Amino acid sequence: MRRLLCGMILLSLAIAASAPVALGAGTGTGGGVPIRVSPAKGGVHTNFVLRFSIPAATGTTGSRSVSDYVTVSGHGHAGCVGQAELPMRSAPAHTAFKLTLNPSHLNGHWCTGRFNGMLMQRQTTICPPGPVQQAIVCPLYVLAPRVLARFQFTVTQPKKTHRAR
Question: Which long-range contacts (CB under 8 A, 24 or more apart) does 124-127 make?
């Protein structure tokens, strides 16, 4: 019985370990959450502000955890911010968020170019703690991250000023 239980736990762990890779490769669904970005175009030090409401509650309920996060990616290179992932706090459904993308909080300034961003949702199970011998097999899973919204903004190169001599 102990060997069977250990085997089932190892199988659950193997499935859980492979799920993010296998399922995360998909693009997900658009979701249709309205999201506003302001400004749509800015410079390397611009704070871009996102405004949106989350459609579903986030947080931990029983053995289920739901979390939202924002990702942005652009053409990155050394010395500037080309991508970021920002976790969000747990909140009830339909909570309005105002999230500021501040490059100085991301350890630098924006790289120039177009940035694509997504509001994402991740769902996982939480297994109760306990010794392996006493554990009931917990079905570990990580659902493919779901795209709730897409947005974009553009970062332009600062204009060079010519000084008169």
Answer: 124/64, 124/65, 125/63, 125/64, 125/65, 126/60, 126/63, 126/64, 126/65, 127/63
3-state helix, strand, coil in the chain (%, to 5): 15, 40, 45
Going by pLDDT thresholds of 50, 70 and 90, the confidence category of residue 85 is very high
Q: What is the pTM of this model?
A: 0.71
What is the spatial distance between Cα 77 and Cα 100, in angstroms, rounded to a whole number? 22
Give 40-79 pLDDT, tens digit per residue. 999 999 999 999 999 999 999 888 899 999 999 998 888 8
Are 99 and 49 spatial neighbours (Cβ–Cβ below 8 Å)? Answer: yes
